[in-house]
Amino acid sequence: MEIIQSVIDWYMANMNYLTIFALMAIESSFIPFPSEVVIPFAAYKAAQGSLSVTGVFLAGTAGALTGAIFNYYIALYLGRPVIYKLADTKLAHWLLIDKEKVVHAEEYFVKHGKMSTFIGRLIPAVRQLISLPAGLSKMNPGTFILFTFVGAGLWNVILTLVGYFAYDMRDKIFPYLDKIMIVAGVIFVVWLSVQGYKAIRRKKGSATL
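User: That's the sequence. What structure does it adopt?
Assistant: Structure tokens below.
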């Protein structure tokens, strides 16, 4: 479809180290934005010669670390009561965040300890919020940054390799690119709808208690 191709062309044309950094920082903060649509595309562009693979990795990892540190210090300074109260606001629900997800992230942190800040970076359902319990528990900042950097770095290496080697397979991918993007778009919309529906149900359930 021409519309999809135009969106892809615009996205790729504006892909640079600054946008990679910014999008990955967003991905690691409160806003649900998948890294799977950032790093692979940037690495693909690097394979074309417009960017460097090292630059993509460094910009992406620096952005992920920045977003995680932001969440860490927000939780550290605001504390548990405020974080949980904010998780129940309409804005948080629009961002697909609710109290239940914060509880889940905190339980995951308690179960796996400090290593959860490393392991959690590799798990999509946990990655966005794992920095909050680290801040709430006042985890050592140096340890938090180290584990987060290693976890985010490993994840970005995987995504970079996917995007970079996809360039070599472009002749096989392009004939199906429109269909792939449509399917991916439908899955993303369905996922957003399901998450929004669950958030509304939880909100109504808590209101009736």
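The CA atoms of residues 55 and 140 lie 29 Å apart.
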